[in-house]
């Protein structure tokens, strides 16, 4: 399939990385721009982004911005990316999972750094994961079981790069484990493995990414924390 957007021709398999590159070049249509809403629920650590700790039972718009494109949720914190590639976080921050260099809870979305190259985000229990448009993988927050994937078990309150590879694409955070799909369709996991949640055939914890099997057809990871399913491209 070949499509033409703003005079630029694209063909072949389309993925998030290609979309991000087109967006950075100004050739990706902005028809999916939208505001962000908190559906409701528990709000003790301000995770609804409404700058208070009042529980909600109905949807409320978070701020007035209409340029949100990607949303990731941890246990009690949230992350989002705007169309300009900036990263924003809010909610619980007791382990530095907001990535702003401290451990103070955030009541409203606050920008993390000044970079404009964030692509995908996800959260786990007290930690966060993200990829950039250059294919690098980043993590921050709690690291007691190696869930940051950087080979260590030391908490980080600012994003740290995981290895030096540049072919990471999608990420997902579980309770105390992380998952990612590379551009070659392989699936990788790291962190706590006591119940076999890493999918590598044992119950060992890993502080660096390990490949799950040898398949190259993995396509999707869950959008929210707490689940381990993944979809292949043939499903």
How would you characterize this protein structure?
- The protein has 235 residues and is mostly beta strands.
- It has 2 domains: 1-31, no CATH class; 33-232, Regulator of chromosome condensation 1/beta-lactamase-inhibitor protein II (Methylamine Dehydrogenase, Chain H, 7 Propeller), CATH 2.130.10.
- The chain is 4% helix and 37% strand.
- It contains 1 helix and 18 strands.
- It has one helix at residues 16-24, and strands at 2-5, 8-11, 37-38, 60-61, 68-73, 77-82, 87-91, 106-111, 118-123, 127-132, 137-141, 156-161, 168-173, 177-182, 187-191, 206-211, 218-220, 231-232.
- The strands form 6 sheets. It has a 4-stranded antiparallel β-sheet, with no helix packed on it.
- Strand 10 (127-132) and strand 11 (137-141) form a beta hairpin.
- The longest helix has 9 residues, at 16-24.
- It starts with a strand and ends with a strand.
